[in-house]
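ok so I'm stuck.
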Amino acid sequence: MGLECRYELSQSAYIKLVLHALKHRSAAVNGLLVGHLTEDGAAVVHIADSIPLSHSQIALLPSLELALIQVEEHFSSKGMGIVGYYHANERYDDRELGNAAKKIGDHVFRYFPRAAVLLLDDKKMEELMEGKGRDPALQLYTRDSSKSWRQVGSDGSSQLILKEPSANIVLVDYIASQKWQELVDFDDHLDDISKDWLNPDLFN
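replied:
not stuck anymore, here's the structure
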């Protein structure tokens, strides 16, 4: 078994990572999760923000390392650090955590031993768009004692919850207005440094 923990995902972090996947529907996308850990009785990882990284060379370690350094430097002054990784597969019907995602998850695990990997679940996303789903459109993976990434169910000791219950309603509104067109990832920033990977104006 891995370390038991609850993962609390903020509305802005959740919406941003879904918009990233929607902007690049025919490509795999990934990004980092930023937040902090509290251990007041039960361990809770508070995921405050998501940082969209790539929509092209997912497994390219040099650009990943550069992003990790910049993200750590920016958020450490705010009392936060990298707490996980998110991934959306290239194929719509692919709901498996692939080797590239696992390797990057292992890399993030070195920074934070309670790291989570969140995989976008297109089936849940579809239900959400039809007004049926209430759960986050994500699968939660944590690393167990055998160093393998395993999917965690909501009935397990580790679980993923949305901090704001209305997050899915807000997300559907953003999707309807094609908000993803405004989102910038680290790839975009490397192509044009005037584009801000922090997306400070996305929700304004």
